[in-house]
Write a structure and sequence with these properties.
This protein is of the alpha/beta class. Helix content is about 45%, strand content about 15%. The longest helix is centred in the N-terminal third of the chain and has 18 residues.
């Protein structure tokens, strides 16, 4: 999805949640500056493509069903594992190291850093509510790429998507995955806050026409 396709959807999300474009833009610029300061630690896009392009990818959401899906053996040995933020902790508990983590730094940072130390690429997302987390944690991460919901910058990309889970699927699609599967997704989870439920509805809506197989 290119920026011209994404931007009208993004405007709807801003109105629905009361977010502001200016806050997201500020966060994107903060992330850009942090990545620039890291110099050679900033991840070239080609390294992300190396684990996604032409490969079978499985995206792991952080719904409570993820543990059951993992124990049922739903990840194949030849699939590139992409974790949606909090799914990282569950994966690590089952001995699975994700190749890529999609995160707005809202999950367990200790697990994210552990996976990162074991060579997981971290795709950090900037939005208006997480500038403090960006400033605190980005300098401590390696193999890192930046994303935003608003217009991209030279080193902060926009592949589309809103929540960590659907952004992971959009990213896999944008970077040329051969096949995309998903586990640990529950769009009708009632054990969440009303705000989270609204986000799940958006995720379901955004993924409606994406080529993804939910196992």
């Amino acid at each position: 999805m290119n920026i011209d396709e994404w931007d009208p959807i993004y405007e709807q999300i801003l109105r629905d949640f009361g977010f502001t474009r200016a806050a997201d833009e500020r966060a994107a610029h903060v992330l850009s500056a942090l990545l620039t300061a890291k110099g050679s630690s900033n991840l070239p896009l080609e390294r992300l493509d190396h684990v996604i392009y032409g490969r079978d990818v499985i995206v792991c959401g952080k719904a409570p069903t993820l543990l059951k899906d993992l124990r049922a053996g739903k990840i194949s040995a030849d699939e590139t594992v992409i974790a949606a933020d909090g799914a990282t902790s569950v994966l690590l508990s089952q001995g699975v190291i994700p190749a890529v983590i999609i995160s707005d730094l809202d999950g367990a940072i200790s697990d994210l850093r552990l996976a990162n130390a074991m060579c997981a690429i971290v795709v950090v997302h900037a939005h208006g509510d997480n500038v403090d987390k960006l400033e605190a944690h980005v300098p401590l991460l390696h193999r890192i790429l930046g994303t935003t919901q608003t217009h991209p910058l030279s080193n902060v990309f926009n592949f589309g998507g809103f929540t960590d889970g659907d952004r992971a699927i959009f990213l896999a699609e944008a970077r040329g995955a051969r096949r995309i599967s998903a586990i640990g997704f529950d769009f009708s989870d009632r054990n969440v806050t009303p705000r989270k439920m609204k986000k799940l509805k958006w995720a379901k809506r955004l993924l409606k026409h994406r080529k993804v197989h939910f196992k």
